[in-house]
Design goal:
Radius of gyration: 10 Å
Order of helices and strands: HHHHH
Strand content: under 5%
Helix content: 55-70%
Oligomer: single chain
Shape: globular
Largest sheet: none
Number of helices: 5
Structural class: mainly alpha
Number of strands: 0
Length: about 70
C-alpha cells in the first residue's frame, strides 16, 4: 500500500505540479511539501483536509490506510 508521501508525490507528478506550485495550492511552504513527500513530517489536520479535497480522496484513505 502507498504511504501518504507517495500519494502526494504521485498526485503532484501526475498533474505536472512542482513542489512550489503544490505548496501554493495547499497554502504551505515548498519545504513542507518535500517533507510530506518523504514522510519526514505529517501535515496538520487542516492541511490533511486540503490535501484530501485537492486529490479527491477521503483523509483516511490517504493518511490512515494500511
Amino acid at each position: 500500500m502507498n504511504n501518504y508521501g507517495e500519494i502526494i508525490r504521485n498526485y503532484r507528478l501526475e498533474n505536472d505540479y512542482t513542489q512550489d506550485e503544490l505548496g501554493r495550492l495547499l497554502k504551505v511552504s515548498t519545504s513542507a511539501i518535500a517533507m510530506y513527500e518523504s514522510c519526514e513530517r505529517v501535515p496538520r489536520d487542516s492541511v490533511k483536509l486540503r490535501i484530501a479535497e485537492l486529490i479527491g480522496k477521503p483523509v483516511g484513505e490517504i493518511f490512515f490506510a494500511k
